[in-house]
């Protein structure tokens, strides 16, 4: 998942350390990885901890996924090193077709995250 917005990078950078994440730099981004291979575990409140096994921070965007390879691939696309899937062949028209629904999904995800963190969103 790639999120863009106003994030407190200081909190995002310090929070993973006590949980055992290692930090690395990749193409100007900060990458945090907990395990070499995410181990699926039980969901808590609908959230799977393995979904945030790897986290990347780049230019106001937060990328979360189960493995470091996918975070690096998203960073490669964001920095123009490889084409984005959204620009590729038959997939290219899809983002415009689902933009409104996806926007609603992201608003709901942000509200859910805010409620989980105690914020009134």
Care to describe what's here?
This protein has 121 residues and is of the alpha+beta class. It folds into two domains: 2-82, no CATH class; 85-121, no CATH class. The chain has three helices and five strands; from the N terminus they run βαββββαα. It is globular and about 40 Å long. The two termini are 20 Å apart. 12% of the residues are buried.
The count of β-strands is 5
Q: What's the gyration radius in Å?
A: 15 Å
Shape by Cα distribution: globular
Count the DSSP helices: 3
The CA-CA distance between the termini, in Å, is 20 Å
User: Which structural class do you get from the secondary structure elements?
Assistant: alpha+beta
Strand order within the widest beta sheet:
1-5-4-3-2
Strand content: 15-25%
Instruction: Kindly state the percentage of residues in helix.
Output: 25-40%
Number of domains: 2
Main beta sheet, described? 5 strands, antiparallel
């Amino acid at each position: 998942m790639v999120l863009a917005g106003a994030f407190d990078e200081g909190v995002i950078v310090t929070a993973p350390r006590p949980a055992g994440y290692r930090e690395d730099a990749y193409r100007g981004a900060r990458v945090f990885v907990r395990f070499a291979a995410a181990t699926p575990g039980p969901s808590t409140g609908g959230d799977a901890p393995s979904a945030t096994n790897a986290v990347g921070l780049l230019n106001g965007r937060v990328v979360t996924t189960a493995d470091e390879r996918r975070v690096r691939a998203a960073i490669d696309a964001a920095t123009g090193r490889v084409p984005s899937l959204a620009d590729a062949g038959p997939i290219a028209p899809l983002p415009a077709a689902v933009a409104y629904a996806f926007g609603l999904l992201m608003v709901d995800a942000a509200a859910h995250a805010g409620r989980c963190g105690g914020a009134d969103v």
